[in-house]
Design goal:
Shape: elongated
Number of strands: 8
Distance between the termini: 100 Å
Strand order of the largest sheet: 3-7-8-6
Low-confidence stretches: 216-221, 278-283, 413-470
Oligomer: single chain
Helix content: 40-55%
Order of helices and strands: HHHHHHHEHEHEEEEEEHHHHHHHHHHH
Length: about 475
Amino acid sequence: MNPVDTWRGIDKLEQQGWNEDAIAAALALPARTVRKLKLLGKLHPPMLDFMAKGSMPNDEQLRTIANASLDDQAQVWKRHKPKKGHEVSWWEISRVLSKPRIPFSAAKFDDDLARAYGVVWDDDLFAPAGEDGRYTTNVDGFFGAQQEWLANNLPERGTVVTLNEYGQPALPKKAEHVYGKPQKADFIGHYIDQRSGEVKTVAYRLPPERKKGGKADEATQDETPVKPSRPDVTQKGIAMIGDLRTDALHQALDNADVPNETLIGLLVLALGANNVSVHTSSSDYSSRKAICERISEGGVLSADPALVHAAARDMLKTALSCRANMSDSGINSRIAGVALGASDHLPSMASEEFLSCLSRQALERSAAEEGVKIEPRVKDTRAALIAHCKNRIWRFPAALFTVTDEEVTSARIRWVPGSEDDEVFDVDDVYGDATDVADHASDEDGAVDDGDSVHNGGPGHLPPYPVAAE
């Protein structure tokens, strides 16, 4: 029997006084299936007769049609009834009869708020077994109750963010989206997804406040950034890489086996990084001060190696950053990442969110390197690469901590004495050509070691720095 014949048999047995359990046992059907088939009794009769001929909608379409009133079904069937010899478009009928529905699983509010906003839960008999199939069609009431719950249950440093015209969270002015692991000083914005009704979160970071009357760095004012015509990665992608690199670098610093010599060298790198200043208005000053107090209780520097080692790692995590903002430590954080093997801590980047930030050329180059077929449409190539890397970790090569020759050349190591009358020395004043900096590592005998510097990939070695000439 087809489903309509089965339902008619169920209906006849019910008229004779059979209950659902007895009907299920007699027809060797689960009781859930019996209840589901009973929904066919809510269909417009001519529509049901057409289904009896063998043209059945799928479960989702049947559920949508059965939930509509008989008057609405009759009107839609009159307009969409197929001509003789043609098939009926159940998809079109269900589309016209569909109403917005929000599942119970998306609700955060309790029964009291549901009653206050007139939210009534209906059972979805077509839902998969073992799942709560309740839903509501009172969309306005649901969003009102959800919004009130959210306003009353915000966590510490949690905020409510508005949505733009595209349904995306609109962050505060000058706020930066955090794609990696949020820090203690970051904010967590909460909003309600307009399609699913779920409460979702987005992490963001606000820039530190600038003192009134403060002047921008003159060197920064004079610089004119040159924007590539067709960059491989968008600004959003660069921000994502910066967040992921910083998280990976901090995870590598949690390794208690970092050698003392390397740790001291990393501290030197951190203190000489782009984002470090002696007098700062950064909100992180209190955390750096707290780290210092841990190893200087009573005004005496601690001699406990484990305590000093842990404080050094925490200080490095506070100072070193690869984020694409004012906290960027520059090439120093990349060199530190190579020394620590931080690339191994980067997560997989084979995701729609990240790959959509790549240019067509960069995406196709990455796909070719993985042996993935390049499709005519970019989104198909992207989907193929995601599927190819589904069960393993794939990292965008340019997102690794590797430092190239060009980056070493462009990173000028400058020494500025305290006196205004003193001369400013450049790399070229000490070593000659800046391209030789990464390979210049003199030992006690004056011999040049060109095999184990970080630039050449040696583990645990730090690049040498020139001393100031007289």
